[in-house]
TrEMBL record:
Protein name: Bifunctional hydroxymethylpyrimidine kinase/phosphomethylpyrimidine kinase
Pathway info: Cofactor biosynthesis; thiamine diphosphate biosynthesis; 4-amino-2-methyl-5-diphosphomethylpyrimidine from 5-amino-1-(5-phospho-D-ribosyl)imidazole: step 3/3
SUPFAM superfamilies: Ribokinase-like
Keywords: ATP-binding, Kinase, Nucleotide-binding, Thiamine biosynthesis, Transferase
CDD domains: HMPP_kinase
A GO MF label: ATP binding
Recorded catalytic activity of this chain's protein: 4-amino-2-methyl-5-(phosphooxymethyl)pyrimidine + ATP = 4-amino-2-methyl-5-(diphosphooxymethyl)pyrimidine + ADP; 4-amino-5-hydroxymethyl-2-methylpyrimidine + ATP = 4-amino-2-methyl-5-(phosphooxymethyl)pyrimidine + ADP + H(+)
Taxon lineage: Bacteria, Bacillati, Actinomycetota, Actinomycetes, Micrococcales
Coiled coil: none
Gene that this polypeptide is encoded by: thiD
Species of provenance: Cellulosimicrobium protaetiae
Cited InterPro entries: HMP/HMP-P_kinase_dom, PM/HMP-P_kinase-1, Ribokinase-like
CC annotations in GO: cytosol
Length: 305
């Protein structure tokens, strides 16, 4: 299937190569000291895909495989200092945004992305690819985004190339009830993608069927053109260990995009990799709750048992 996706604003290429062999990819997210979700998971996903990983912290989260205990948000001023420290020095190829925590952080990240796009255009360079995982609530049920910050996340989504909601997050973005079937979810994603002019990677992990499908939904390139939907199916893995799946998938997508022709190819490969990581997760023996996936399954497999 041919996928027509919005292109980055054309900019002269400059002297340096557009795609280095090892893309420089930045995670902007919260922490998980047990390493299964957030920034720690993102860095492992980046490394598993041959990318050079960097990380800016939005929030320090005391959590483990049983749930979130507390959250500390240093605030937008220090967040901006971290972001500028990276972008003043490093030519970033792709950005993955995860937990933003609150409205002030979301708006600061948006302002930084705008400034970066302008600086890149002025230097004749394309801006980085941007993937937004609109993290709102942890699997354990703890809020990771302040109530009332949803509009700021919608505004941030408008600056991203791809947004990767699970079913409850899509419902918040779309301002509708949570879809209970894959068909309803696809319908909701298509209408959100069209009205917001955003590419959506819809994740079906919260459904309960024999498969766990994802779908890339791209709005039509003209007002009359139909949206383009590319579905990626995978057998559902029967496991407790799904902590950090959304973080790991969106990070893989950001790491792969500079190394693939388009979002569909990157999403297909990220999904296949994540399914392998889910299958291998139970052999890790990390924590006594809902454990992480094995980011290194393809690099150095662990024997089950
Ligand atoms: N049990 C499972 N078996 C296979 N894939 C799964 C399973 N649970 C989640 N996934 C996949 O993991 C990714 C994250 O999905 P999801 O759980 O919907 O998002 P989130 O982690 O943000 O809540 C998606 O690619 C989804 O299809
Ligand atoms: C810092 C951070 N970011 C995201 C998640 C969501 O992951 P999950 O839904 O698997 O709990 C998390 N628990 N912590």
């Amino acid at each position: 299937m041919t996928l027509a996706l919005p292109q980055h604003a054309p900019a002269p290429r400059g002297d340096r190569p557009r795609r280095p062999s090892r893309p420089r990819v930045l995670s902007i997210a919260g922490t998980d000291p047990t390493g299964g979700a957030g920034i720690q998971a993102d860095l492992k996903s980046f490394a598993a895909h041959g990318a050079y990983g960097m990380a800016v912290t939005t929030a320090l989260v005391a959590q483990n495989t049983h749930g979130v205990r507390s959250v500390h948000v240093p605030g937008p001023a220090f967040l901006r200092e971290q972001l500028d420290a990276v972008s003043d020095d490093v030519e970033i190829d792709a950005v993955k945004i995860g937990m933003v925590a609150d409205e002030a952080n979301a708006r600061e990240i948006g302002a930084w992305l705008d400034a970066l796009a302008t600086a890149r255009t002025d230097s004749g360079l394309p801006r980085p690819w941007v993937v937004l995982d609109p993290v709102m609530v942890a699997t354990s049920g703890h809020r990771l985004l302040d109530a009332g910050a949803e509009q700021a996340v919608r505004d941030l989504a408008a600056r991203a190339d791809v947004v990767t909601p699970n079913l409850p997050e899509l419902a918040v973005l779309a301002g509708q009830d949570v879809a209970t079937t894959w068909d309803d979810a696809l319908h909701q994603a298509t209408s959100y993608a069209t009205t917001s002019d955003t590419v959506v990677l819809l994740k079906g992990g919260h459904l309960t069927g024999a498969t766990s499908p994802d779908a890339l939904v791209a709005p039509g390139t003209t007002p009359d053109a139909a949206p383009v939907v590319t579905t990626f199916d995978a057998a559902r893995v029967h496991t407790l260990h799904t902590h950090g799946t959304g973080c790991s998938l969106s990070a893989a997508l950001a790491a792969l995009r500079p190394q693939r022709e388009g979002w569909a190819e990157a999403a297909r490969d990220a999904k296949a990799w994540l399914t392998g990581a889910l299958r291998a997760g139970s052999a890790l023996r990390v924590g006594t709750g809902r454990g992480p996936v094995d980011h290194l399954h393809a690099v150095s497999p662990v024997a089950p048992g």
